[in-house]
């Protein structure tokens, strides 16, 4: 059941209002389902607040998350909430004009754009989907990510999803949920199905 | 990273197609964030498939999930995907005309409607938000819930969220994710904030 009360009051010199509006970093990690799905659920709340939302999909397949993408794009276009910008590594990123050689290069190009957008305060919520992988694989330096996030201007919330989120990132983040797989239909031979997996 | 291949092929006499379209029961439980948020993310995929979605909020507060509710209602009204029906215990349920005496009675009235809708195949995805609680508290008989779900007609997917989901329900479900709290801003004295918690 929802609990609105903090368990401790910190001695950080901030007023409740300042603390309430603190920009947050979320990490959704673990082997279970729901890491990205929960991030897109958060995007619904952001949309409802009228916030500009930026999604960066750090996955190879351009077809992945088609349901979430279409729903959020349609919402963004209604004009009844925030805007939604959706960027896909699987399509080579829209801002990159040349051929990208490798997934590693693609991931770095994505991160460079995230840095530019954070500096420009382009969005109020960033969904960095599957961004834990390029850090885990050493393609992107976790320490640099933490440094950039720590120094980001304004009130910009960032959600990072993916298995194996680096421990330093988890230590830095404000909220970390480990989606733990208890049981999955694929363990029982069930294949992914439309409307459920995508 | 997404994996589309099952780890074993079951000896259940079903074709891949039959197995693929099997109606599923999901349970999102645990103490971490993201249980309901991930369920509403699933609703985005269902909407994109044109499925009718029924949400039953088994929570007292009618104000809870306002962001998700508005986003899904707006999506449902676009006519570009499935329909969305949103039912709130916190407002006494629309189909109940008399005063409801207690939360326990309200929870039971909700479950009675879910049973009627399952029998009528009203929706293709049911989000039974925070429904684990009335089972955990003994207000609704878990064995009956399992029996009704086991015998539901057609292809109706059901997501049940909430802490302390009964073990029998987890044993019965096709997919169980435990959202494990690693770290939460409220532990550090952060209060809930608009756009993030609601």
Automatic annotation (TrEMBL), chains A, B:
Give one Pfam family, short name only: CobA_CobO_BtuR
**Which domain of life does this protein belong to?**
Bacteria
The record ties this protein, via Gene3D superfamilies, to:
P-loop containing nucleotide triphosphate hydrolases
Q: What is this protein called?
A: Cob(I)yrinic acid a,c-diamide adenosyltransferase
- Give me the gene this protein comes from: cobO
